[in-house]
C-alpha cells in the first residue's frame, strides 16, 4: 500500500492513501487531496496509477520534476521520487515508511556578525599602518587639490544623471506578495477544517464559530494536543489571521483502570482483562465501553474517550 505525502507547505504531514486508479489534487473542496497553499489552483493536477508506476499530469497549475524543471506531465513516477506543485513538494512512498522527524532549520544569521567582527578586526589592525603612511606623505599643492575637487564634482554629476535616467527608464518592481488574508469566519473555518482533517484531528476536535471568532474544543490525548498546537502555529505562520481562534481542547489521560492480557479479533472480537473478564465490543467495564478493536489499537468511550495502541 502506497500513499501520497505532502512534504512542505501549509499541509505538511498530510497523506493520501493511494487506493484506486485516479486522484485529483488542488484547492477545490471535492479534491482527493485538498491544498490551500498560495498558488495552488482548484484543479492543479491529476495523479493516475499505471502499469509501470504513477503518472502526474498538470491541469490548471505548474508542475515541476524532482530537479525543479517545469513540465506538463511526469510518467513512470517511481516511489520515493519527489515532485512539486509550484513550491509545494510531494512524494509517493510506502505507507509503512516512517515520516522524517520535524527539525527546525538552523539559523544562519550568527555568521553575519562573525564576518562583520572579522572585518572590523582587520580594519583595526590596518589602521596604525595607514595613519603612519599618511603622516609620511607630503601635502598636495593647492592647484592639485582644486583639480581633484573639480573631478570629484564632475564624477558625482555624471553618476547622478545616469542613476536618474535609469530610474525613469526601468519600471518599478512589483511589491512582494504578503500572507493570504483570513478575515471572514467562513474562509477561516474552511482552512482550519481542512487542516484538522489532514492531521486526523477532525473526529476528536470540534470546531465551532460565531460572528467574530472560532473555538476548538474536545478531549484529546497529549500527542494529539501537541499536533493541534503545531497546526495552529503553522496556520499563523502561513496566513494573516484577523479573527481570534480559541483553543479550548483539553488533554485526557490515556491510562486504563485495568490491565489487558489478551486481544482477539475476528467476528467475535474481544479482550480479556487480568482478572479474567472477557469484554466484547459494546460491553462496559469501569464506566468505559469497548467500541472498536482495530488492527493496531483499542477504542473506549464513556467517562472519557481513550484510544490505546497495541
Describe the protein.
16% of the residues are buried. The protein has 4 helices and 25 strands. Among the domains are: 2-94, Tumour Suppressor Smad4, CATH 2.60.200; 181-251, Alpha-Beta Plaits (2-Layer Sandwich); 260-309, no CATH class. The strands form 8 sheets. A 5-stranded mixed sheet has the order 4-3-5-6-9, with no helix packed on it. It has a 4-stranded antiparallel sheet with strand order 2-1-11-10, with no helix packed on it. It has helices at 111-136, 142-169, 185-198, 222-238; strands spanning 2-6, 15-17, 22-26, 33-34, 45-49, 54-58, 63-64, 70-71, 73-77, 82-85, 88-94, 181-182, 206-209, 214-217, 219-220, 240-241, 245-247, 250-251, 260-264, 270-273, 278-280, 284-285, 288-293, 297-302, 306-309. It is α+β, with helices and mostly antiparallel strands and 310 residues long.
Which secondary structure elements does this structure contain, and how are they paired or packed?
Layout: E1 2-6, E2 15-17, E3 22-26, E4 33-34, E5 45-49, E6 54-58, E7 63-64, E8 70-71, E9 73-77, E10 82-85, E11 88-94, H1 111-136, H2 142-169, E12 181-182, H3 185-198, E13 206-209, E14 214-217, E15 219-220, H4 222-238, E16 240-241, E17 245-247, E18 250-251, E19 260-264, E20 270-273, E21 278-280, E22 284-285, E23 288-293, E24 297-302, E25 306-309
Domain YscD-like Bon-like: 188-249
Protein name: Type III secretion protein HrpQ
Domain YscD cytoplasmic: 5-94
Amino acid at each position: 500500500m502506497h500513499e501520497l505525502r505532502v512534504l512542505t507547505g501549509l499541509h505538511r504531514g498530510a497523506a493520501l492513501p493511494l487506493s484506486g486508479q485516479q486522484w485529483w489534487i488542488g484547492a477545490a473542496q471535492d479534491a482527493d487531496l485538498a491544498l490551500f497553499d498560495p498558488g495552488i489552483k482548484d484543479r492543479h493536477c491529476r495523479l493516475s496509477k499505471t502499469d509501470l508506476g504513477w503518472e502526474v499530469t498538470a491541469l490548471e497549475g505548474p508542475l515541476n520534476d524532482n530537479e525543479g524543471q517545469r513540465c506538463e506531465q511526469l510518467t513512470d513516477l517511481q516511489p520515493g521520487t519527489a515532485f512539486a506543485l509550484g513550491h509545494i513538494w510531494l512524494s509517493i512512498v510506502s505507507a509503512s515508511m516512517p515520516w522524517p522527524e520535524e527539525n527546525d532549520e538552523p539559523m544562519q544569521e550568527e555568521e553575519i556578525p562573525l564576518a562583520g567582527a572579522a572585518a572590523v578586526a582587520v580594519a583595526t589592525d590596518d589602521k596604525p599602518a595607514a595613519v603612519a603612511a599618511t603622516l609620511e606623505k607630503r601635502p598636495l599643492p593647492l592647484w592639485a587639490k582644486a583639480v581633484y575637487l573639480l573631478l570629484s564634482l564632475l564624477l558625482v554629476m555624471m553618476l547622478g544623471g545616469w542613476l536618474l535616467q535609469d530610474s525613469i527608464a526601468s519600471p518599478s518592481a512589483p511589491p512582494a506578495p504578503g500572507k493570504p488574508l483570513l478575515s471572514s469566519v467562513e474562509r477561516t473555518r474552511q482552512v482550519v477544517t481542512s487542516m484538522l482533517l489532514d492531521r486526523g484531528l477532525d473526529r476528536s476536535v470540534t470546531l465551532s464559530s460565531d460572528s467574530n471568532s472560532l473555538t476548538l474544543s474536545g478531549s484529546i490525548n497529549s500527542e494529539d494536543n501537541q499536533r493541534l498546537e503545531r497546526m495552529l502555529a503553522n496556520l499563523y505562520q502561513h496566513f494573516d489571521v484577523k479573527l481570534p481562534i480559541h483553543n479550548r481542547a483539553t488533554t485526557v489521560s490515556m491510562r486504563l483502570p485495568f490491565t489487558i492480557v489478551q486481544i482477539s479479533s475476528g467476528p467475535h472480537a474481544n479482550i480479556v482483562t487480568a482478572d479474567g473478564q472477557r469484554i466484547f465490543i459494546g460491553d462496559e467495564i469501569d464506566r468505559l465501553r469497548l467500541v472498536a478493536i482495530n488492527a493496531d489499537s483499542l477504542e473506549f468511550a464513556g467517562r472519557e474517550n481513550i484510544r490505546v495502541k497495541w
